[in-house]
Amino acid sequence: MSPVHSLAARYYTDPAVFAEEQQGLFARTWQFAGHASQLAEPGDYFVFELAGESLFCVMGRDRVIRTFYNVCQHRAHQLLQGTGTTRVVVCPYHAWTYELTGQLRAGPNIKAVEGFDKDSVCLTEVRTETFLGFIFVNLDPDAAPMDEWFPGTRAELEDWVPDWEHLAPLEWVEIAERCNWKVSVENYSECYHCSLNHPTFATGVVKPETYDIQPQGHCLRHTTECQNLDAMTYPIDLERPNADGYSSWFLWPMFSFQVYPGNRLNTYHWRPVDAGNVVVWRGWYSVDGADDEVVRRLAVQDRATTVEEDIHLVESVQRGLGSRGYRPGPLVVDPNCGVNSEHSVQVLQGWMREAVDG
To answer: Which residues contact 215 (CB under 8 A, 6 or more apart)?
Structure first.
């Protein structure tokens, strides 16, 4: 049996591949939009972009979070910008006014139009799920629910982050990487490189020899045993469930929940810019978003060690992918899996290939 080879360089360098992903993959998968704490009261909203589309999330009077394409159904003017609070959504162009449910409420002189059916006009809604306080959307109206995409993940995270209902973003760390988003995701999704390149992580947090990554649906679950917790730089309440562990849940294609010892939650969100650039948003959370010295210190240490080390790795890979001398080599897939195996990259690249080639 021949070894499985890595993807051809074009998957990471060709603008046409990126354009195909934007029109297909990004629009047919569950994508992070924001955190529910951003929409605390009815009328609160925020605008964001996904797959080349402008969208907005809004809290309804029924306290349901909905997402709509940010476009008036009259003559296509964009409706909202940034973040804010509103009683109704009013188009700046001709003042067509929509309820927070998306239904048309009123418009200047529309009653003069014979046969005008106001009830038939509604903003185009987008599939939305709130997953442990995180808002995800999918432009595919027929997409399966997140619990089918990522089986078991919700229940596991509830066990690992028992206070998730009270958490809110404390800090966002924005990291620009000069590489294709898939290069960064692959690097995140294997620890074959950890002992050589991440001394703080590999000797201060986890036991590399116990590290493994296994698929759960379209989730890659990272598990490991941890080092001596007495050596951690912050206090840990070992009475809490899973407080002595580290684990991660990567949700294909561009989001990951990560829990450090002490049930400390942080997240990765990859935001592709073009074929050769991505911005990675690292989210750090605390109870009610209140200032927390431990979380602040973790964010600083993480940015200075693992994150900084990874930037140099992925940018070097992207430069190498542009070399005419590169020939995709065989992946190191150990039947026993483990830290020195690239079986998780094999799974990822299968999803990547399917997204582009069908």
So the answer is: 221, 344, 347
154 and 160 in contact (C-beta within 8 Å)? Answer: no
For residue range 308-335, list pLDDT tens digits in order: 999 999 999 999 999 999 999 999 998 9
Q: Which residues of 130-154 are buried (b: 16+ CB within 10 A; e: fewer)?
A: bbebbbbbbbeeebeebeebbeebe
What residues does 138 pair with on adjacent strands? 127
Among 357, 67, 345, which Cα is nearest to 182's?
Answer: 345
CA-nearest of 138, 214, 192, 218 to 313 is 192
Structure tokens at 14: 């060709």
Cα distance between residue 356 and residue 13, in whole Å: 13
The dihedral through the CA atoms of 321, 21, 16, 346 has a sign that is positive
- 15-23 helix and 343-357 helix, angle to the nearest 10 degrees: 80
DSSP 68-97: EES--TTT------SEEE-SSEE-TTT--E
Strands laid side by side in the 89-90 sheet:
89-90, 97-98, 104-106
Model confidence, pTM: 0.94
Task: Please tell me the distance from the alpha carbon of residue 241 to that of residue 285, in angstroms, as a whole number.
Answer: 18
Give the H/E segment covering residue 185: helix 181-188
Least Cα distance to 35 among 24, 46, 50 occurs for 46
* Domains assigned to the chain: 31-142 (2.102.10.10), 148-357 (3.90.380.10)
Given this model, what pLDDT does residue 80 score? 98
